[in-house]
Amino acid sequence: MLQTHGLTLAAAGRELVRGLDWRVEPGQRWCVIGRNAAGKSTLLRALAGVGEVGVVQRGEVHWQGRGQRDWSAIDAAALRAFMPQQAIDRFPITVARLLELSIVRPHQDRQAVLAALELAALAPRPVLELSGGERQRVALAQCVLQGAPLLMLDEPVAFQDPAHQALVARWLSTRAASDQALVISAHDVNWIARTATHVLALLPTGQCEQGTAAQLLEAGLLERVYGCGWRAVGGVWVAD
Amino acid sequence: MPLTGARLWALAATLAALALAVTLMALALGSAGLDVELIRTLRAPRVAAAAGVGALLALSGLAMQSLLRNPLADPYVLGTSGGAAVGALLALVFGVAMTLGAAAGALAAGAVLLWLARRALATTDDASPRLILAGAMLAALFGAIASLLLSLTPDQRLRGAIFWLVGDLSGTDDAGVSLLAAVVFTGWFVWRERAIDRLLLGSVAAHLLGEPVKRLRFELLLGASLAAALAVASAGAIGFVGLVVPHALRLAGVQRTRDLALLAPVGGAALLVAADLLARTVVLPLELPVGAVMALVGAPVFVWFLARGGR
After folding, report:
1. Domain that holds residue A79
2. ipTM value for the complex
């Protein structure tokens, strides 16, 4: 569904990602991990085909076997959705209208999505009045209601309380059951362990490690990624 | 809270009634009282001109706000009207059609503004503070150029030129064009409403949803500039209508571009007809420039709106 061939991303004279060859298949849930400023957001934006000023991109990104640049904006909208780290709202519209504007392929059960993300009561509220966590779950709903099978989510639980982090983890785990694929950036290793099937690790050198979550979430790699020691205490990862 | 259904219709009906009442008052009141001939030959064309210009200014403001994703954008504040005024003055000096000069000036000013905003609009999606500053500087620059041009204008034309720069409806006689343009522009807004509402979510969000962002921006720039140019060419640079009318409607709870585009021209027309009525009746037999009246009454009202609804 998504492939990169020799993808290199550089910003401010530094190579964030170097020569990434990678495949994302339907049914997979990938988590991208890396330190702050490692290039997770830059990678997600490049995968989504959203240009970024100051980023040099080499190599190729293919969607369903076809070069990203060969897709029209309308076809691309039916294929991939992207949730940025933070939405900046300027105008007072309701959650219901925002969600309605986000629909490209209307085949999702809107009420079910709203109920699953505990958003049903928010529908008549203006977006400018939502809390950070509520706005983020609305953004997640927007992304899903777009109807695209390839979802790229940039830190979808950054503002969620523990209960809602668990809710989103459970719900995302049901998304990619069949024809959908997810690429998610996140920091909480334990949240990643319960959400992801696969992990792509961005190392400080610009190199990438990829594999199943079970393979990659181990103390040695985590130490290389984050530069600190890791212990598993009763099945929970703790950074030292 | 956002307005929907019956409450939106109630607001529309209230606004229409207000516009009608203001129009009737503007037709009936004036220095010579009720006189059918006077109403037909003088007041009616002037009221129609005020309505057309007011509607165009409100729509131009709405388009600028959508284009720059900033609820405080306005053709007067951001220099588009100033560009139109300079273009019209240049046309006056060189003996070219004024509307043509105004259109060229407004388009040039709008293009410069969009160019200044391009980086901010492409990256952070949020061009607000710097853009308003850049627009204000652009407006100041055009004001300076207009002053220079005025000092070069021959004396016999000077009085007309000045009045016209401040905003004055006394010499206007082509209301038909303004009204027709306002109807066409409203229709365009209604036709494009979904794309424009998506653009208000940000250029990245609109692009991700498959909207042709660049083309949409070009159309908005063209519409905003032409509407401002037509307004300036027929009544001079009148500020504030494009800023306050959409803003007041949003504060009242109107949220969709379709509803705003249908209500804003009615509100703009009513506002400018009322302001012109004030301008020509407050200090009888003197006539004040409507642009000055508009700013004197409108600016405090706008500040009050901000203080009440702002956060």
Report:
1. 2-88+149-239
2. 0.91
